[in-house]
Amino acid sequence: MPTLAPAPAVTQRTVPAPSTRPAAGLDLPSVAFFGRSLAEYVQFFALDLVALKGRDVLDVAAGPSSFTAEACARRIDAVAVDPLYGSPVTTLAAQVQLDYARMFDQMRAKRRLFRFRSFPSFDAAEADRRAAAQRFIADYDTHFAHGRYVGGVLPRLPFFDGTFDLVLCAHLLFTYAQRFDYDWHLAACRELVRVSANDVRLHPICGADGKPYPGLPRLRRDLAAVGISSQIVGVDYEFFAGANAMLVLRRAQT
Ligand SMILES: C[S@@+](CC[C@H](N)C(=O)[O-])C[C@H]1O[C@@H](n2cnc3c(N)ncnc32)[C@H](O)[C@@H]1O
User: Fold this and answer.
1) What is the spatial distance between Cα 57 and Cα 75, in angstroms, rounded to a whole number?
2) Which end of the chain is less packed: N or C, by CB atoms within 10 Å?
3) How far, in Å, from the CA of 234 to the mean position of ligand 1?
4) What pTM does this model have?
5) Residue 105 is part of a domain; what is its CATH number?
6) One digit per residue, pLDDT tens: the chain, 254 residues?
């Protein structure tokens, strides 16, 4: 289990949620406590689970995803970080009930925003993601005390430099670009790279409208200027239309 660095003072820089909704996208007034299974992570992060055995993997903004529980069961040394970790398990279970109902109602009402490539139907996606949340809740209840689930808020993470072999972050950066400004995105990327010894993978690279994050070219230039390379990699996955790629970041070799 990685050693925790002293918790830094954290200021979460966000922009207020806009009063107008995106014209043609998901309405995300707050960051949902909504999570996916390891099988979905494998698809949208193009993961090789055999190669990850015995490796230290960090899932940032992990929410109620079962990635960490399932990865640990496969002898991958996974740790999950989320601002809500540290809350009682009953609070997290209640948040899951609230956010899953809201999200699936909205998804069904906005069918045209989805592609049935990775799931055959909304019912299949809902069953899979509710099962993932249940698995997370049971694992959190058992393993929070052992440091598998850590409270933390981007753009500051409570880990030493280069702690993890792989750092993952799904459905926070870019997805919630209406809530987090450009500087926050840049600082978050730099922080994810700081705690990684190798790759950082971010998915998706589009916002709630399914279009690529408009600040991406500038972000990639600014990261290159501080010695961080970036690559957009297409993945064999699509449910939310447009969410079919990841951004891979790596500290340039010195
Ligand atoms: C939509 S969930 C994504 C869960 C998981 N990564 C997945 O893809 O299934 C987004 C998560 O980001 C967390 N979050 C919100 N603000 C954050 C921040 N500043 N730093 C890290 N996580 C944050 C929320 O608590 C929520 O659990």
Assistant:
1) 11
2) C
3) 22
4) 0.92
5) 3.40.50.150
6) 555 555 443 333 333 333 334 447 998 889 999 999 999 999 999 999 999 999 999 999 999 999 999 999 999 999 999 999 999 999 999 999 999 999 999 999 999 999 998 999 999 999 999 999 999 999 999 999 999 999 999 999 999 999 999 999 999 999 999 999 999 999 999 999 999 999 999 999 999 999 999 999 999 999 999 999 999 999 999 999 999 999 999 998 76
Ligand 1: atom nearest CA of 36 is: 9
Give dist(CA 237, CA 45) in Å, integer. Answer: 9
Residue count of the chain: 254
Look up the domain containing 156 and give its range.
Answer: 38-251
Would you say residue 97 lies in a domain?
A: yes
Residue 10 class from Cβ within 10 Å (0-12 exposed, 13-18 middle, 19+ buried)? Answer: middle
Which residue from 12, 27, 31 has its CB within 8 A of the most atoms of ligand 1, so it is best to mutate?
A: 31
66 lines ligand 1 (CB under 6 A): no
Confirm whether 157 is domain-assigned.
Answer: yes
- Asked if the structure places residue 32 within a domain, the reply is no
Note whether 44 and 169 are within 8 A (CB): no
Q: The tokens of 230 are what?
A: 């970036």
Q: Ligand 1: distance of its center to the CA of 151 in Å?
A: 11
What is the atom index within ligand 1 of the atom nearest the CA of 61?
22
Structural domain tally of the chain? 1
Question: How close is the Cα of 254 to the center of ligand 1, in Å?
Answer: 32
Task: Identify whether 10 is part of a domain.
Answer: no
